[in-house]
Structure formats: C-alpha cells, structure tokens
Amino acid sequence: MRKNTRIHEIVSDDLSRAGNQLFIKRDDELDPMISGNKLYKLDQNLRQAVVEGKRTIVTVGGAFSNHIAATAKACKQEGLASIGIIRGERTSGLNPTLRFAESQGMKLEFRSRSAFRSSRQQGFQDFSTAFPDAYFIPEGGANQLGVEGATAMYSEECRAFDVLCVAMGTGTTFAGILKALQPGQQLIGFPVLKNDHILDEISPFLSPEDLTKRHEINTDYHFGGYAKWNETLISFLREFWIQHSIKLDPIYTGKLLYGVSELVALKKLEGKRILCFHTGGIQGVSGFEERFGIKIF
Predict the structure, then answer these.
(1) Residue 291 half-sphere exposure, CB side, CA atoms within 13 Å?
(2) Which residues are CB-contacts of 277 (< 8 A; sequence separation ≥ 6)?
(3) Which pLDDT score, from 0 to 100, does residue 160 have?
(4) HSE on the CB side for 154, CA within 13 Å?
(5) Residue 170 has what pLDDT?
(6) What are the two backbone dihedrals, phi and then psi, of residue 120, each rounded to the nearest 5 degrees?
(7) Angle (CA) 237 253 26, round 5°
C-alpha cells in the first residue's frame, strides 16, 4: 500500500494573523475510490481474509457509503468476490455509488431500514452468520483490524505537528491515529453525526495507555447530523476549492475543515501547527449533488 501521501500547506492571511500553520495530509490522493481512511481500514481486513482462505467479502453500509464503493473496488483488485448489504430499499435507478459498486462486481442485497437498524444493534451477527464461508467486515471497517490499519495513517511526518484533526464517522480512524499519537501532541475528532457515545464505542479498541493521550471530541460541527448540511457549509466548500484547489466532501472533510477554520478564527488553536487528515469521500459528491439537486463545484 502506498503510504507516502503528501502534506499540503494551506496558506491564508487569517491563519498568519492567528499565528497558525495549517496543513492537510492528502490521503484522498491515494485512489479516486479506495481513498483516504477507507484504504487503510480495508488493508489488514483483506489480508486476514486471504490468510483465512476466504474468497468472498461481505460488508454493510448505506446507499451512499464510501466504504461500500471502496470495498467493491478493493475486492476486484484482489480477485475477491464481494457482497454489500445496503440499508434501504432498492430503487429503480441506483445512485452513482451503488452503480459503481455493481460495476466492480459487488452483489448488492437490500434490507429495510428497520431490519438494518435491528441488525446493527446486534452487531450485524445475523448478516455475518448468513454467509458462513465469507469474511465479514463491519460497517465502515469498524473492527480491531480496521483500527490497526488506520494507525498507519500516522506517518513519520505527522510527528512535526502540535494538533492533529480528523473527521469521525464510526470513530475507527480516530482510534487508529490516537494509538500512534506521540507525547506532546493533541488529537481532535470532529463527529459528523449526532453521537454522544462515540468514545465509548471505540474504547474497546484502545488500551488504557491510549486513553491517557491528549484527545478531544468536538461535537459542534456536525451541522445537525449525518449527511445534514446548510448553505453555510456548501459555501465554505466552494470557497475552499476556489482558494486552495482542494475538494472537500460535504459529509466528512468539509465539516472537519469548517470546524478547524472556526476554531482558528476563535483563537482556540492559537500558535499551533495543525494537521488535518483528508480522508477521501470525494466519490460521494456526485451522489450528494444528485440527491439534493445542487452543484457544489
């Protein structure tokens, strides 16, 4: 796996006035579809599947899931079959994410939202046992191997920064980076959905020593919940693209960078060298635009 992604400095007068330096680790450039944290979280899971002699991967996700798209392509590249259990009913015209997944050979099976919710509450045990000969990867790659894979996102260059910032969905990536965090550094997670218990959910993947490291979860920038947005967020994405030629997605990295920019403006990170992880997700922009009838870029 290529891990030497570039670190890009964001230059602006606002940052200079606040005495900050802001950088983005461009893990989105790894691959258009298997990009950012998705690639890292899948890496060790797919290796383990091969070790166990499994030739089919089963995973779960929503209709616009970056994880579904990434798993479909990764499995095709590795010569593995894939099955995606999708939340919601199948529609007559699939969205771009699911069309891509099918184009990569993934078999899609749909479950009602209530059935999906019930399965999630039971840890998707019914899904995993329904395919006994397959290797099961949880939603978002949220298992111990996913956390260990995400730890590799913390490269040697990350040591040079005071504050590291990452968006949080399942929290798997946050947990992986926290495990690698060095003394004197702080990690801030920005949940993109309403979840006051996210630290409790990822704690089983962390050691007592991990939890003593300096970390914070900022819940002020989810914009109302998962996939929720407003014109302020969309305007921010457009302006960021115009100024810095970097596309951010409205689900994860857009909310992350908006939150970091506001904390800088409020002088809550004054004088810090800040590193944000671009965790990809750009494949989902076309589906977001189609769903809401807007054009971001």
Answers:
(1) 16
(2) 24, 25, 27, 36, 37, 153, 164, 165, 166, 167, 173, 177
(3) 97
(4) 25
(5) 95
(6) -60, -40
(7) 105
pLDDT at 122: 83
Q: Given the structure tokens 């900022």, which residue do they identify?
A: 218
Using alpha carbons, select from 233, 268, 225, 267 the residue that is nearest to residue 250. Answer: 233
pLDDT at 3: 58
Torsion of CA 233, 227, 294, 111, to 10 degrees: 180
Task: Give the C-alpha separation, 232 to 255, whole Å.
Answer: 11
Q: Give the count of beta carbons closer than 10 Å to the beta carbon of residue 228.
A: 15
Set out the domains of the chain in order of their start, with CATH numbers: 7-32+153-292 (3.40.50.1100), 37-141 (3.40.50.1100)
The answer to whether 254 and 232 have CB atoms below 8 angstroms apart is: no
DSSP letter at 28 equals G
Pairing, β 56-61 against β 81-87: parallel
Q: For the chain (length 297 residues), average pLDDT per consecutive 10?
A: 79 82 95 89 97 97 95 97 94 91 96 88 82 94 97 96 97 98 98 93 96 97 95 97 96 97 93 96 93 94
**Residue 195 φ then ψ, to 5°:** -160, 95
Token pair 């929720």 in the structure block, residue: 228
3-state secondary structure of 121: helix
In terms of Cα–Cα distance, which of 43, 56, 42 is closest to 132? 56
Tokens 């769903």 sit at which residue?
291
Residues 112-123: b if buried by 16+ CB within 10 A, e if exposed: eeeebeebeeee
163 strand-pairing partners: 186, 274
Give the pair of three-digit tokens for residue 132: 């006994």
Q: How many CB atoms within 10 Å of residue 86?
A: 23
Query: Is the Cα dihedral 90, 198, 177, 49 positive or negative?
Result: negative
